[in-house]
């Protein structure tokens, strides 16, 4: 069925109720139809989520979560030397499996840290490119967390704790391909004309995690250079939206096969650490890491490798002002701990959001994203209150802040500093622009320590 412009229109299933017709769209397994599905509103309102990269790669916890690939396939010198120096000859990557023990994993504690971060959703790696599933998958015999290592269903435990103790939406990351899976390599050799791997492994796993854990985000990744037709991505997504238990609320990303990224799917990710710095017409997400060099935990990380709280607040302000969501990644340890440095960063972001959350949650982009006069000022708009939020990252030594974008009106415009009671004084600069007198506060009296929000009403 084609809509205007040749785009496939969702077929409508009409539910007859006395005097009332409720239409629930049904989507065809085509990008034209699937891309027309409106993104569930909760995702744009949430703005901020936590990504968790956890798996067998957390055991060597050296270099990167791509450890297996860099060591065995690319044979990168630091990885080869690391193995030669620390493990016996003949030690395989599979031998790391039983060492993934998770003895300190306390899902309630994780849920409490996630809640304290101010995040509104969480995405856990149910399976990374190594193929090890954090649940007891029927399709990953003896290479899953119930059979090997922790002997626990880590996905179920975290899902339960997050749902019982927080209001976060629970999501799952899933890698389509697996680096060294024999069936995938065979299909790749056949230029993906055969489809043994997706039909016996990848797709059954996706149906399994949706049915079993009902995640509200499916964060797909790792197309293995195969097209979406090989993965039958449109078939899976049509089922997900039409007939799955999460059809109404689930959101998906754009990593469903070669050529789909930044083009098809739900929200766009475009690339890792994507932060364009300008407004985009389509909902997008900036997935980034607190450890600049790795998604998984690294024992060899130095303090300078971790982004400071000032960097994280800056990323959050920039991302949200340009219409994006921020998905901030942590990598837990093989024994199930969220390292103290990650916990501190998450709690710091949460403390900042307690004061400045109105400038983030539920906001829309304003007509200007950043200020034209003062650098390091990012705007958001709160539609319910009709407020413009100006997040400024540097407290001016002069005690006054000049803004080039707002159009202030005498007797109407009001300026508040989030977390401070009194109204602030200001002077208009002609048609456009204003100078705001900030309160004279000691460092202890400041409402927060890193980045502040001015709330402006009636500034056009």
Task: Give the topology, please.
Blueprint: E1 11-17, E2 20-26, H1 31-34, H2 41-46, E3 48-52, H3 67-73, H4 77-86, H5 107-116, E4 121-127, H6 154-165, E5 169-175, H7 182-189, H8 196-213, E6 217-221, H9 228-231, H10 233-242, E7 251-252, E8 284-289, H11 309-321, E9 324-330, H12 340-356, E10 377-382, E11 387-392, E12 400-403, E13 414-417, E14 426-428, E15 434-437, E16 452-457
Parallel strand pairs: 3-4, 3-9, 4-5, 5-6, 6-7, 8-9
Antiparallel strand pairs: 1-2, 10-11, 11-16, 12-15, 13-16, 14-15
Note down, in words, how this protein is organized.
This protein has 460 residues and is of the alpha/beta class. It has twelve helices and 16 strands. The chain has helices at residues 31-34, 41-46, 67-73, 77-86, 107-116, 154-165, 182-189, 196-213, 228-231, 233-242, 309-321, 340-356, and strands spanning 11-17, 20-26, 48-52, 121-127, 169-175, 217-221, 251-252, 284-289, 324-330, 377-382, 387-392, 400-403, 414-417, 426-428, 434-437, 452-457. The strands form four sheets. Strands 7-6-5-4-3-9-8 form a seven-stranded parallel β-sheet. The protein has a four-stranded antiparallel β-sheet with strand order 10-11-16-13. Strands 12-15-14 form a three-stranded antiparallel β-sheet, with no helix packed on it.
